[in-house]
């Protein structure tokens, strides 16, 4: 997968760090800013595919920054706000925002929305093929050697993440952040779901999800 370049403009440090960690764990290149003071420079130099943009910011607010993004870039825009009023959402969408997420939000949902936007823009693959394994992210289906796999929602998210990051060694913390949306949780959660996913994958072929001792897991095509 070609990673997306994501510019995150959010003045709350904890939220900015969490969003950055979640997007980075999903394999994307992230640049975080506390305000829009360098927006025009970032659009020209970082060239983001998507801008995640808070509405309430010091200096220029999110609506003013959205106008600048639209005037200077073809980047997609996902707006964040603590307000739940319909008026703000309508204003943002009419001004050119591609999506709108109200705080507090689930991190995995935000990452999914960003990636859905990247796919609509042609920046991400919807269908991932690795040897005899085929994962269709949009259709939420997976097939191995022509056999459709019966996966839980979490198992599919885990498989899609591993497949998108094929050949990369992923730590348990990265997997927890990308699939469950949080860190510092019981690492056995990852082990249990990897084990269940492996059993289903290996009913129809050789092992593709491998343990890298002391580091994490990787998915690669069978030799």
Description:
With 223 residues, the protein is of the alpha/beta class. The chain contains eight helices and eleven strands. It has helices spanning 13-25, 39-45, 62-72, 86-94, 107-120, 153-164, 172-180, 188-202; strands at 5-9, 29-33, 50-54, 76-81, 99-102, 127-130, 133-136, 141-144, 147-148, 209-212, 216-219. It is elongated, with a radius of gyration of 19 Å. It has a five-stranded parallel beta sheet with strand order 2-1-3-4-5, sandwiched between helices. It has a four-stranded antiparallel beta sheet with strand order 6-7-8-9, covered by helices on one side. A two-stranded antiparallel sheet has the order 10-11. Helix 1 (13-25) crosses helix 7 (172-180), helix 6 (153-164) packs across helix 7 and helix 6 packs across helix 8. The mean pLDDT is 90. Strand 6 and strand 7 (133-136) form a beta hairpin. The two termini are 20 Å apart.
Q: Residue share in helices? A: 40-55%
Q: List unreliable stretches of 5+ residues.
A: none
Radius of gyration: 19 Å
- Cα distance spanning the termini: 20 Å
Average pLDDT value? 90
The chain-level structural class is alpha/beta
Continuous helix count: 8
The proportion of residues in beta strands is: 15-25%
Strand order of the largest sheet: 2-1-3-4-5
Quaternary assembly? single chain
Q: Major β-sheet, in short?
A: 5 strands, parallel
Strand tally is 11
**Overall 3D form:** elongated
H/E topology pattern:
EHEHEHEHEHEEEEHHHEE
């Amino acid at each position: 997968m070609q990673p997306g370049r994501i510019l995150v403009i959010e003045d709350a440090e904890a939220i900015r760090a969490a969003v950055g960690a979640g997007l980075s764990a999903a394999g994307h290149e992230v640049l975080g800013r506390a305000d829009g003071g360098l927006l025009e420079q970032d659009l020209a130099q970082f060239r983001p595919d998507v801008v995640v943009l808070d509405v309430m910011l010091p200096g220029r607010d999110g609506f003013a920054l959205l106008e600048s993004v639209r005037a200077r870039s073809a980047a997609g825009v996902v707006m964040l706000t603590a307000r739940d009023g319909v008026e703000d959402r309508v204003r943002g969408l009419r001004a050119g925002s591609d999506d709108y997420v109200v705080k507090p939000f689930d991190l995995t949902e935000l990452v999914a929305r960003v990636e859905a936007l990247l796919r609509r823009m042609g920046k991400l693959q919807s269908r991932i093929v690795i040897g005899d394994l085929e994962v269709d992210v949009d259709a939420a289906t997976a097939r191995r050697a022509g056999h459709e796999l019966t996966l839980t929602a979490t198992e599919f998210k885990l498989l899609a993440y591993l497949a998108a990051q094929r050949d990369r060694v992923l730590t348990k913390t990265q997997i927890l952040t990308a699939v469950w949306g949080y860190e510092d949780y019981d690492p056995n959660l990852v082990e249990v779901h990897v084990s269940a996913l492996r059993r289903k994958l290996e009913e129809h072929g050789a092992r593709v999800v491998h343990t890298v001792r002391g580091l994490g897991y990787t998915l690669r095509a069978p030799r």
